[in-house]
Amino acid sequence: MTAPALLAVRDLRTTYLRASGPARAVDGVSFDVASGETVALVGESGCGKTAIALSLMRLLPRHGRIEPGSQVAFDGRDLLGLDERAMRDLRGRRLAMIFQEPASALNPVMRVGEQVAEVARVHGERSRRAAWERAVAMLRRTGIADAPARARQYPHELSGGMRQRVLIAMALLLEPALVIADEPTSALDVTVQAQILDLLRELQRETGTAVLFITHDFGVVAELCSRALVMREGRLVEDAPVERLFAAPAHPYTAELLRAVPRLAERP
Amino acid sequence: MSSEPFAGLARAMVRRVLRSTGARVACAVLALFVIAAIAAPLVAPYDPTVHPDPVLLKNLPPSAAHPFGTDPFSRDVLSRVIFGARVSLGVAAASVLIAVSLGTALGAVAGLAGGWVDAVCMRAVDAVLSVPRLLLLIALVASTGPLPVGGIILLLGLTGWPATSRIVRAEVRALRERDFVVAARAMGVARHRILSRHLLPAVAPQVLVAATVAFASVIPLEAGLSFLGLGVRPPTPSWGSIILDGADRPAQLWWLVLFPGMAIVGVVFAVNAIGERLREAVDPRQEASR
What we know:
The complex is a heterodimer.
Chain A: E1 7-18, E2 21-33, E3 38-42, H1 49-57, E4 64-66, E5 71-74, E6 77-78, H2 84-90, E7 95-98, H3 102-105, H4 112-122, H5 128-141, H6 147-151, H7 160-172, E8 178-182, H8 190-207, E9 210-215, H9 218-224, E10 227-232, E11 235-241, H10 242-247, H11 252-259
Chain B: H1 7-19, H2 21-38, H3 40-43, H4 77-113, H5 115-130, H6 133-144, H7 149-159, H8 162-176, H9 179-186, H10 191-227, H11 239-245, H12 254-282
């Protein structure tokens, strides 16, 4: 390691209190993300990927708790020690998240442009008009045609792919240092998925944002990420550069996951 | 810009009200009362408070000159019912405004904060609801002595918020775990802004329905208080106090009971009919159970 990592997670443990008792969703996970890097977090449903994302955002539901002893350094600061006010200042500005379901992550009764503009507004943009202009410009950058008109529409008037572009515009508006993308394409059609992935890659190149890409799709991993973390039942089982992961998976579970990827034709 | 997002639902609400014949009639009835209340000095044939001839003109049954008859003080009952609409509807509207604002604020805070704040608010609801509202009002007026109209409004407002606060609390609790609220927090939006920009607009339709229910329940309540002599004080006419003037001989002075009574029933029916259609627009699932 040369430069200190942008994000350093050490021994993260997150517990969900269930009716049946506490359940460990994240069980002693450690990893780093460097500035500008794209890291995949892979694993099957329910293995704790989203719990990691929500732990890093400090947005766990009420019954979720980060155990003492867990350490997260972000931007050189102790993320888990920050108070709510400092955390709020980071969210959206330095650390952002793209949610899985664009349909439910947008407020149904608010114009999409206003939802993008709100990010600027809560982070110090005083002028309503300036925030709106920035939102429209960002929507245009995400490839939304006729952005000024689209910005005035409500989420239900947009297609799924367009809604996801809005969420991406919100997350990248202030060019945060790290974006956590929680399966941003799994709710979309395959053709739209490819467009959204291209867009993410392009915007990432322009802004230098690091991305923690949560997915269960190895196609996405291969296409977008330089390194992959493989997760199973709350633990990391492998942390390797993507080429090595595909060429020679070190952990049997990784190999198993790779074999589970459907192929159009088997190689001879 | 904040009213625009409801354009869709607002239109659905209006459409649903206008599609039903009953609700259309209810709107007409309500409009009639509201116009009468606003234009009372223009439409009332007589002054509602002067006693023109307490000997010759008292207790007259309905006639061409006095379509609703006269009361024991020789006042024209039609004029008193018209001016009474002003008082009864005005008191109801103002107190519902207070009750619904208070209920929305408390319900939203309780629902969003949870924990002990929620517990305190909900125990306050239980406390207010544990005593029948009319009984509570009688006890309060008995302890304060006769109140001006503003005092009546305040009392009705301060005892009417629990129903709204329960509805708002339930809605906010359901909404606060929704993705778009978590997403707003993930962008650094503060709680108070989430409340005012994301949650309250989303509960506004339910609040409107709650307001119609509150209005329909406060009309007979105010009438009851005034009938008991604890509400609006004479000579100001309210529908309840007009009935009071005929209360010692209701069989003989039936016009003092029938006409204001019909006004009370008419308004309550009309508001309930409209509120029912609004509720269906807000929550179409309820239609299935009808």
